[in-house]
Amino acid sequence: MNTWTPPANVNLVDLGFMDSRSKLIDLAAFLDRVQRAGQEGDFRVAALKQAIELLAGDQPERARNILLSFSDPSTEPIPKATTQGAVGAVPPGQG
Amino acid sequence: MVSRTTDDYEKLALAGCETICEPAFWAGFDRASAQGFYDYFRQITEYEPKRAARFGIKHYTWLCINPKESEDPELADDVLALIPQFLDKPNVLGIGEIGLNKNSRNELQVLEKHIQIAADFDQLILVHTPHLEDKLKGTRLILDALKNHSKITPDRVIIDHVEEHTIDLVLNQGFWAGITLYPESKCTPHRAIDMLEARSGERIWMNSACDWGISDPLAVPKTMLEMKRRGWSPTAIQRVAYDNPVAFMKQSGKFHLD
Ligand SMILES: [Zn+2]
Fold it and tell me: I need a labelling partner for A80 at 20 to 30 A (CA). Which of A32, B9, B203, B212 fits?
C-alpha cells in the first residue's frame, strides 16, 4: 500500500455552506408542513426531532450519533420478517 | 447490470470505467421458484459479460440468494444447491451479496449456509448490510456470524453499505468496508469522502448503487470529481477508486484487468 497523503487544504465552507443551508431550510419547512397538517405525532417525526438535538453536540461525531439515534438498539434476531422494507426510524414497540 | 439499460454501460464506458462487479441481488420482485434463480445465474454469468463487453467493460459477478428472499428456508436451500455449479464460471468472484435485510432468524440461517459454501469452495465474500434503522443491528449480527466460522478470514470479506455508525465496527475487526453511493439513502459523495479522509482510505472501496431504485451509475466518477475539489491528489484518488477494489478482488484469482 502507498503512504497516505492527506488532501491539500481547501475552504470546505465555500464548498458546502450553500448546500447545507438549503438542506436545513428544507428540514425546517418539512417540520412546519407536518405540523400544519397535524401529523407531527408520527414516530418518524418524533425521531427526527430527537436527532436534531444531536446537532448541538460539540464533537465531530454528529453524523454517527444521529445515525445511532435512528437505529434499532435490540440485539436478537426477530422471529420472522413480515415486511421487506425499512422506514428510517424504529417503529413503536420494536427495538 | 440486470436492472439497468444498455445506455448505462455506455455512460460508464464514457466516464472511463474499465471493469464492474455486479452482486446477485433482488429482482425488484420475489422469484417464485429456484428455476427463476437458475435463469438469473445464467444471465449474470453468461449474458451480462457480453453486454458489458460491447462497451469494452469487463464484467464480474457474485452469486447467492439475496437476504430479501431468504425468509423461505425451502426456497433458499433449493437456490443454495444451484450455486456450486456456477462457481467455476470465469467471471464469478465469490459469494454475495449475502447478509441480512430485516435481521430475522431465517435470514441469519441462510447467511450461515452461504458462509459455509464460501468456506467449502474457498470463495471471497461480499456482504450486504441492512437498510436504515436495521443496519447497526444487522451489521453486528453479520460480523458475529463471520467471526464464528473458523475458516473465514476477514481480509477476504467486504462488508458493503457501511455508514458513519458501522464503518469502524467493520474495519476494527479486519474486514474490508464498502461505501455505497446512493441518491436517497445510504451515502452521499461528501460523506463518503469524510469517512475516507478520517481513515486514510485503507481497506475501503466505494461503489455506485445500480439497482431498481433511483440510483446513479456515475456516482463513483462524480465522487472522484468531488475529491479533486476537496484537494485530493490524483494518486490518492486513484488508490481509493481503483487500487483498493483491484487489491480486494484480485484475491479471487480470477480477477484480472487485461
Ligand atoms: Zn446491497
Answer: B212
